[in-house]
Write a structure and sequence with these properties.
The protein is 31% helix and 27% strand. By secondary structure, the chain is an alpha/beta fold. It comes from Streptomyces katrae. It holds the Pfam family FAD_binding_3.
Amino acid sequence: MRGGTVAVVGGSIAGCAFASAAVRAGADGVVVLERTRGRLADRGVGLCVHDERAAELAAAGALPGGIPAHRLLRRRWVVRDGGAGPGGRMIWEQPFPFHSYHWGLLWRGLREATPEEVVYRQGVAVAGVAGDGGAAEVRLGDGSVERYDLAVGADGYRSVVREAVAPGARPHYAGYVCWRGNLDAALLEGLEGAESFPEAVTTVCFPGGSCVIYRIPGPDGPRVNWVLYAPPPPDGRLRFDDPTSFPPGALTPELLDHLRALLEREFPPYWGRALGLTAPADTFVQPIYDLETASTTAGRLLLAGDAATVVRPHNTSGAAKALQDATAFGAAWAGAGTWEELLRDYQAARGAAGRELVALARRLGRAQVERTPEWGRMSGAEAEAWWQGQLGGAAGIGGQSMAS
């Protein structure tokens, strides 16, 4: 199938990938509608992509070369133990064949690789969409309506397009929160018991939570990224009726005090001090949610990335899933003779895959936050068996191969 016009609602990672895929597939016109006026590259912190997923995506043209990435090889699980030194006691080590990225640098690489034929419009709010009648209608915030052959919802977990595809579908609160931050890696050089394994991910384990720590490339040099899962603060300052967060730099003194107390109480001394070096401007907290939809398509509408499924971060698959969605979209287009066939084939390729990722991430969340084991009593063999129980037959985390 050749020709046609496509509107991509949302211009972040999924949006850039889908816009590029549509141009490569032969669309006559592709427009990206991004509500943010500023630089998206200023958003976000760290993420990881499994090496096998990265190779598949690079071969498909969905992951451009030259984007800064940091190689990771192994993951160490540690607990606080007074007799084990400031870094804690390692209970298990597993292979971790991933590369880490800075969200902004990854987005910048995808944006720069977007074909010049794409019209990328910033500061454009989409108020609603409709996909019946053989066309997609996109209603903008100023009241105007634009018509396209297809509209792609790449507008994240608060998706406007999702409401038209799956009315009433909302992210569900998982019962715990995620604290995130990043700091200059050079700050660790002055700490006693300094981290000497930059190619390793460290997971700090404690009752009722865990924290994943790893290096990422940064705009001005290497940084340390961390993601801490724990019960919500008891003072009720976070809302759980709708996905929301305190963005970087917006944490209240009470929330910062709660985080500092958690680090001091539960973390090995070295890691507590290390994360304590994170500037308030680089720290934020958000409730954890997940969501799955019965269908990723309806009429002339299609959902991508977090608009289609919201997966808890434990699975380390968010960026890879968005790029895989775009790859499947391009493949469906290449094999379709009509828009209806394209949408049918995309749903067949990505609908079940998204739901499986949600289910796996829920299992990981239960085991690593909601129902944590007695970490300190586990042997390496017991930890490995515990891990396999979480996978439930899945090959691993980081997403599935598109060939499977």
